[in-house]
């Protein structure tokens, strides 16, 4: 039976869950919620997820949200022989660290810098420098590694790549970060069904960026 995934098209966290499911060859029943229209606030969804956030999965009656919790759950339940979430304690700790960095630093600083521009604010140079600092940390973390942790694809890569793709769609240049660029191309070419999963989401983001950010420049 397919796992229900409540998502918003263009959400990098939803894309990350889809990438992990693809890597595990899991079938998802995609349920799109229009967040602008408040569909996440409908009583039937709030009953599933009182926090009314996406992504949310329902797996045979079990509901779970927060993308990184979902990806860990999927591997723990369906990919016990997979290397996506290593059994080795130290490697798993490093995967968790990368996931925490992705959530608490990298994506947060991107959102703080870019999202105000989508509401008409001019770019904030201080926030730009903080975001660039996060990219510099990722550049350093990738030094000496093939993937985010060691030489095998993990859920850390699939979470990070979903966000890096959003950065690129938002016209963020990665040219100053050779380790990131090399890793990014590798993950795109080795993550199962990457193009199939990401194509529509990134097209949606590019359109949204093109419509909103130029408005503050005119």
Automatic annotation (TrEMBL):
<protein>
    <recommendedName>
        <fullName>Glutathione S-transferase</fullName>
    </recommendedName>
</protein>
<dbReference type="GO" id="GO:0006749">
    <property type="term" value="P:glutathione metabolic process"/>
</dbReference>
<comment type="similarity">
    <text>Belongs to the GST superfamily.</text>
</comment>
<dbReference type="InterPro" id="IPR010987">
    <property type="entry name" value="Glutathione-S-Trfase_C-like"/>
</dbReference>
<dbReference type="GO" id="GO:0004364">
    <property type="term" value="F:glutathione transferase activity"/>
</dbReference>
<dbReference type="InterPro" id="IPR004045">
    <property type="entry name" value="Glutathione_S-Trfase_N"/>
</dbReference>
<feature type="domain" description="GST C-terminal">
    <location>
        <begin position="88"/>
        <end position="216"/>
    </location>
</feature>
<feature type="domain" description="GST N-terminal">
    <location>
        <begin position="1"/>
        <end position="82"/>
    </location>
</feature>
<dbReference type="InterPro" id="IPR036282">
    <property type="entry name" value="Glutathione-S-Trfase_C_sf"/>
</dbReference>
<dbReference type="Pfam" id="PF00043">
    <property type="entry name" value="GST_C"/>
</dbReference>
<dbReference type="InterPro" id="IPR036249">
    <property type="entry name" value="Thioredoxin-like_sf"/>
</dbReference>
<dbReference type="Pfam" id="PF02798">
    <property type="entry name" value="GST_N"/>
</dbReference>
<dbReference type="InterPro" id="IPR040079">
    <property type="entry name" value="Glutathione_S-Trfase"/>
</dbReference>
<comment type="subunit">
    <text>Homodimer.</text>
</comment>
<dbReference type="InterPro" id="IPR004046">
    <property type="entry name" value="GST_C"/>
</dbReference>
